[in-house]
Each structure stands twice: as C-alpha cells, then as structure tokens.
Amino acid sequence: MSTTPRLALAAATVLIAVSVAGCSSGSDTDSGSDKSSSGSKAGNKAASGSAAPLPSATASSAPSGTPAGTPDAIPTGPGPQGSYTVQKQPAPGTCSYRYTAAKEPLPDLKCTPGATNPKVTQATLKTTICRSGYTADIRPSTNITGREKTANAASYGYKGSLKDAEYDHLISLQLGGDPNDPRNLWVQPPSPGHKEGAGPNNPKDSVESKLKAAICAGKTDLVKAQKAIVKDWTTALSVLGLKDQKPAEKDPKAEEGE
C-alpha cells in the first residue's frame, strides 16, 4: 500500500473519532440547554398568568408566625374617606356563620375576608393606630353603618335583635382595619351566656385591645396580628404567644371595640 492511501485512511479515522466525540459532547450540552429552556418557558408562563398553578398554602411558603390556613394576603380597602357612603352588602342569605367549639361566632371568610387600611403600616404606627384619637378620626357615622348593619344581617340570615349584635370590623380600626370596606364588616351575634336585650357582649373587643397594645409595644408585627384575628379571633393571642398580654390603655376618644 502506498503512503498516500495510508495517510488518507489515518485522516479519515481521526475525522470519524472527532465527529463521534463532538456528538457526545454536544448531546450533553443540549440536554442542559433543554432543561434551562424548559424552566424559562415555565417561568414565562407563570409570569404571564396563563395556566400556571397557584402555589399551595404550606407552612414553608407562609411568612413566619402566620397561622396555618390563613391567606397570604388580606385585601386592602380604600382607606379612610372624607365622606363615607353606604356600601353594598352581600346578597341576602349568601353568608353563613362559623362557630368555634366554644360556640363563639366567626364570619364567613368568603363574605368577610377582612380588609386593611392602606394608611396603617408597620412604618406608620406612631402616627396612626398608636396615636390617641386616630380611630375616632376615621370612624364612619352611625347614619352610614346603621343601614349597612341591617343589610348585612340579611346577608348572614341573622334573625336576632340587632341591638344584641355588633356591626363588627373583623380587623378592628385599632388593628389597621379598613373603616368601611364591606369585606371587613359583619353582624356579629352575641357570644354564649348573653342575656337577651342586654346589648352586645363581645369578648373579641378585649382581644383586639390586647393585640393593639402588643403591636404598639413592638411585641408583635402588625400584619401577623391582622392575619391572626382574621383566622380566628378566639385563638389570635395564643397563636402569637400573647396570652398574658394586658389590654391597651383606654383611648378616651375611641369607642369600645374599635
């Protein structure tokens, strides 16, 4: 065999070896590229809001201290108004009360998920809820809330005396709740042991006062307290480790339960 054919054969062998090695290397690279591309497409799909599934509410995804089962975000209301108007309530009979094992009333979270006052944040506590007179400044008049209360009683199918029920801010004004967002107000039936005709007996008011004191003293976070009261006002203090908390000093300008 001449030298030329031998050289040609050797070159061909080297070319084939390089080609095979190149395919193997390229395959690994393409595999990594496909994973990255797939992740990018999934991210774009989630960002566009198309068919990406919502994250499940797990303990790991919830902020530290958030009660289990509580929505990650509470709706934000319009905030204090210079002039309030009567707000439309849910249709009659569309809301249902829940009750604790001790028969304490809780709202229907589809009708009353709570709503926050956008003016009240962790950064504005000193000039809002921790300032004497703040809740009195933003409270709607009974001319407004009285008509809303009658309509909301129909929403919940409440048949008792309205004088014995409280038109309650689920997140009270002193905890940064919205003053007149219908999502934050419900006709709260009297608690067990109530004497008919005696007016509202609402132990929730004491819980709210203690939570406000804790917030203003820096013992708990505003949002954590709001989420705890929305989930179950009867367990809010224990969930936040505040069972021994004393109530806030009475604000002479505020009404009970604000």
Describe the structure.
It is globular and about 40 Å long. It has helices at residues 3-48, 134-138, 142-156, 204-216, 222-231, 236-239; strands spanning 98-99, 105-106, 166-169, 185-188. The chain has 258 residues and is mainly α. The strands form two sheets. It has a two-stranded antiparallel ribbon.
Summarize the structure.
The protein has 258 residues and is mainly α. It contains 6 helices and 4 strands, in the order H-E-E-H-H-E-E-H-H-H.
Mean pLDDT: 79
> What global shape is seen?
globular
Taken as a percent bin, the fraction of beta residues is: under 5%
Quantity of strands, as a count: 4
The number of helical runs is 6
Helix content: 25-40%
Low-confidence stretches: 2-70
The main pleated sheet reads as:
2 strands, antiparallel
What order do the strands of the largest sheet run in, or round the barrel if closed?
A: 1-2
Distance from N terminus to C terminus (CA atoms, Å) equals: 105 Å
Report the structural category.
mainly alpha
Can you write the helix and strand succession as a string?
HEEHHEEHHH
CA-based gyration radius: 30 Å
Task: Sum up the structure in keywords.
single chain; 258 residues; mainly alpha; two-stranded antiparallel sheet; 5% strand; disordered N terminus
Record the SSE blueprint.
Layout: H1 3-48, E1 98-99, E2 105-106, H2 134-138, H3 142-156, E3 166-169, E4 185-188, H4 204-216, H5 222-231, H6 236-239
Antiparallel strand pairs: 1-2, 3-4
